[in-house]
From TrEMBL, chains A, B, C, D:
The lineage of its organism: Bacteria, Pseudomonadati, Myxococcota, Myxococcia, Myxococcales. Residues 37-56 bind DNA. PANTHER family: HTH-TYPE TRANSCRIPTIONAL REGULATOR RUTR, TETR-FAMILY TRANSCRIPTIONAL REGULATOR. The keyword Protein biosynthesis does not apply. It comes from Corallococcus praedator. This is TetR/AcrR family transcriptional regulator. Keywords: DNA-binding, Transcription, Transcription regulation.
DNA sequence: ACTTAAACGAGACGGTACGTCTTGTCTTGCC
DNA sequence: GGCAAGACAAGACGTACCGTCTCGTTTAAGT
């Protein structure tokens, strides 16, 4: 995931490839993303710098690949569907809070989000590889709820997903307040209320 | 705003101070934050590098000060209160979309958000100086609505604020989809629905 | 000329061999010896790098072979013997000046002389392949002159040869002054005077 | 000696300057010129690479300065004048042979001569700083001899000097044969014979 | 003609050094 | 005596080549 450049990938050394990803993961944990250097990755991986530059366009791209390979298998697949939307959402949002708070994921995630601000291509890859599966899983659960009449017919589910996760990321990224499970619960409750088919709209 | 270091501030050259902020604003617009250097700011401002290092701890801090001085007076003060919460929120969210899309603000904002990921001190200053006034203004409007019975009594308004702005920032920061005024409207509608007192959720 | 390594020479591709020498000659003329690279020779010759490393031990060795193949046939054979030693020497020294000044020969010659300073093996090959024939030709002419009584009996002719060509190379290599045919003539006259059988030695 | 570039020399750190020259001398002795790198000089000298690139245009220029500062004071001044030209020349040529054979001088000298082949500016500086004093000293001795009637009136002394030293350098640079004191003596004898006024050549 | 082992082109690899750039500190000399 | 100017040590950048090492693919001997 990530290479778009020219060289013949069949001749790629899988040994070096893995060593680079491993070294990147280790080093980003040890010194942080800002003080992470290509030279250090190459040295730690026992690899020439050119081998990194040959296959990745930037430091961010290496770290993204490393991060993806790290959180490799744990595709969130689908949310459980207990029939209780609010409970299911609370579960997934609590899990999200836990992940965003786990230092193992927090540092690389913040780094990639930061890097994405100035590198739209990286941003795209980051979202598709890391974020999209989570969003899609939630959206599928919402679709089921919509079919079950727990979510109003007219709601655009892609917006609904961001209504749910947006507040969490906002607090995480901007550190407006501590990111807790209580907050996750409150957001889930409010979101469910927002999506519920209108009993009546008292506005007019 | 921003200085925390030692030297005697009374002897500070206001002329150099302003020149530095101006140069930073110009340069961040010309080359972007990533390629912005302290040396270039000093050169453009006609100032010794030491004069920058003396008063600011990092490149981010200079840019934050420059950004704040740029958007100086326009404190958002308070939201209008037309009595129609949804309409008032749509107005402020549309304005927010406009600002986040305005290249004059977008680049420095993204840069400072990115830099905040690895610099919690900067993050704190950024939030307090730039973001907090907006959040507070929205929260005040919500308090009025709560008093008017348009928002449920039990709702934690600081969470409500993030429910409203979170989805916008999520889309802006992660570029999951284009950030449009239609999206702002939808978010406002859903948020109002979430906060409405109405019948408590019919689930139990 | 030059190969000392192991592989079976009968299977050598003459096509590649020639292409390499041609490419080396062209490139040394285009970019000079210092900026000449094995990679560039291989690319220009349409040859794998290994094919060069297989048959030559160093860049200098390739260029030496290329240079020898360039100045291939024109073995100086023997000097003319008009009976007038001084005239014959002037002729050969003037020709030498011309060659040392001809850009076609000057650049590779200087490069190989330079390289020889740090590579005695190359030095040996260079001297034997390029220089020795010239020196030998002059020495033969001196031997004839010695037989004819124009050169003193006791003179060591190998030293005499270097007395003649040394001053030319000195000026060429060290650029102490322009290398001209007038200088060649003067050197020839002085050398002949040095070698002439002593009328008497007015020293004692 | 050597700097031709822009920066203000008054602010130059004499400490770093000396450390660089010392490191260069040491390293050229330890690993030879070809394997000498700017990086190693900087590391050994405890100096940033830029400090070298700021003040010298090339590796050769650094080594030349280092070499000159090494052989700093020992200006050859003037040759002794015992009245016996041949004896005096033998003395100086033997000394030259000794110097050219002394490893302390041989390696840098060969390196600078080699480098001069592709860098005429360096060549010029090398000749003027290192070689010219020797040549001038010999030329002065020859002038005295010419006044004393031991050298023919019409002889161009600058050519005469190269007649004397050229054969030595020829053998040293091209390694046509071992460079010995016996060779130096023979060259001196032949040179004196060449320059002697005596009976004009009996040829015409 | 068939086999087989080499030499071949291509080019990825681990490395080294390049010359440039930027950082944050230190120094000099002008005003 | 405060400040611009800029030299300095440090070290990462991205590039260029080095010489070695696979890869298939010719190619030429020796069957």
């Amino acid at each position: 995931m990530g290479e778009v450049k020219t060289p013949e990938p069949s001749r790629r050394s899988e040994r070096s490839h893995q060593a680079i990803l491993t070294a990147a993961v280790e080093l980003v944990g040890e010194v942080g993303y800002a003080r992470l250097t290509i030279e250090a990755i190459a040295a730690r991986a026992g690899v020439g710098k050119q081998t990194i530059y040959r296959w990745w366009p930037s430091k961010g791209a290496v770290v993204l690949d490393a991060f993806v390979s790290l959180s490799g298998g744990n595709e969130p697949a689908a949310l459980p569907d207990t029939g209780d939307l609010e409970a299911d959402l609370k579960m997934v949002l609590r899990a999200t809070v836990e992940e965003l708070t786990d230092p193992r994921f927090e540092l690389p995630s913040r780094a990639l989000t930061a890097e994405s601000q100035s590198d739209p291509a990286l941003s795209q890859q980051f979202v598709e590889a890391v974020l999209r599966p989570h969003l899609t899983a939630i959206q599928e659960r919402l679709r089921a709820a919509q079919r079950a009449g727990q979510v109003a017919k007219g709601v655009d589910l892609s917006v609904a997903v961001e209504l749910i996760v947006g507040p969490l990321f906002h607090r995480w990224l901007l550190r407006t307040a501590p990111l807790t499970k209580a907050y996750a619960d409150t957001v889930a409750e409010l979101a469910v209320a927002a999506l519920r088919p209108a009993s009546r709209k008292p506005r007019g």
